[in-house]
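Per your request, structure below.
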């Protein structure tokens, strides 16, 4: 069974930057959409950013657009979420995910479109 490994996360001050990574050892990410989601305490999960297969489309939540960047390295089977200008409201557990649909030309924030999920990593933005 493929597992996504998420090192990274941690505590950062408001206005700071952080990178969260996700690796899929032995699994070919190319050909599948990848996504990042987050869940803050007491709130519903929400999509943060995603990339369709072959980097054809990127999508970001309005709340993070211009501050967060999703990227992928198919050769290394890794994906990154780079977060800049972090705010206290960005505090959440962040999850990476891989879609099940082969070669999609779009990506979405629908959880059912993703089959493999990381274990989650805590990001806390606080002074």
């Amino acid at each position: 069974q493929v597992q996504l490994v998420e090192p990274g996360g941690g505590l950062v001050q408001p206005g700071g930057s952080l990178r969260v990574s996700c690796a899929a050892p032995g699994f070919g990410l190319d050909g599948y959409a990848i996504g990042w989601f987050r869940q803050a305490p007491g709130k519903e999960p929400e999509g943060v950013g995603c990339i369709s297969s072959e980097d054809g489309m990127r999508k970001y939540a309005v709340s993070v657009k211009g501050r967060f960047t999703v990227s992928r390295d198919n050769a290394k089977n890794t994906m990154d979420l780079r977060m800049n200008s972090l705010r206290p409201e960005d505090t959440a557990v962040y999850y990476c995910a891989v879609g099940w649909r082969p070669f999609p030309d779009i990506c979405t924030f629908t959880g059912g479109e993703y089959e493999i999920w990381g274990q989650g990593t805590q990001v806390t933005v606080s002074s």
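The beta strands are 10-12, 18-23, 32-39, 46-51, 58-60, 68-73, 78-83, 92-102, 114-117, 121-125.

Regards,
D.
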